[in-house]
Amino acid sequence: MFTGLVADKGRVVSIVNGAESAVVEIKSALVPELRVGDSISVNGVCLTAISVSESSFKADVMVQTLRLTSLKNLEVGSPVNLELAARADSRLGGHIVQGHVDGVGVVKENSTGEKWNKFVLSIPQELTKYIVNQGSIAVDGVSLTVGEIIGEEVTLWLIPETLAKTNLSDKKSGDLVNIEVDVIAKYVERLMKRGEESGK
């Protein structure tokens, strides 16, 4: 489990593509805290470290993950949002993020304002039912508060801290981002469906 509070903006060092997977190497300041087998969120995708060196780590990315997430667009030099798994003895500063991407959104606008950026995304229609104004959403692993949702467009406001510590400042119109909706909304939907089924 993660919180959506990015701990480091790493950078892709190498990508080795195989028939059914890829191995991604990422340079990060988090390496001293990372061990082989540890979970780490990379742009909101939960991956497992398979090797750790002095300044970088490697992780396997399965073909299904490449197909369903924006990781398929990573290149050498790409900045990535990184977060280690949450600790039970720490504050939950963001919201509950599983690292299981629900869909891929498309950046429509990332415009600079006086104190923040207006960040507008187009998201898959089937995810809109889980998103509410002032609710939580994870975008490339970053915990954000929804400013407004109209149809399939979500407007978010990125504060300077978010712009400085994540790769969202680099996103431009047409870029893909990983979306994870609030897991609590999905649990509520499931419970309601079970209640309706049992009442038949």
> What value does the average pLDDT take?
92
CATH secondary-structure class of the largest domain: Mainly Beta
Strand content: 35-45%
CATH architecture of the largest domain: Beta Barrel
Distance between the amino and carboxyl termini: 36 Å
Strand order of the largest sheet: 1-2-5-4-3-6
Helix content: 10-25%
Q: Provide the succession of SSEs.
A: EEEEEHEEEEEEHEH
As residue ranges, the low-confidence spans are none
The strand count comes to 12
Domains counted in the coordinates: how many?
2
Helices, by number, come to: 3
- Structural class of the helices, strands and pairings? mainly beta
What is the CATH topology classification name of the largest domain? Elongation Factor Tu (Ef-tu), domain 3
Major pleated sheet: 6 strands, antiparallel, barrel
Shape: globular
Description:
The chain folds into 2 domains: 8-84, Elongation Factor Tu (Ef-tu), domain 3, CATH 2.40.30.20; 103-189, Elongation Factor Tu (Ef-tu), domain 3, CATH 2.40.30. Helix content is 14%, strand content 42%. The protein has 3 helices and 12 strands, in the order βββββαββββββαβα. β9 (136-139) and β10 form a beta hairpin. It is globular, with a radius of gyration of 17 Å. It starts with 7 loop residues before the first strand and ends with a helix.
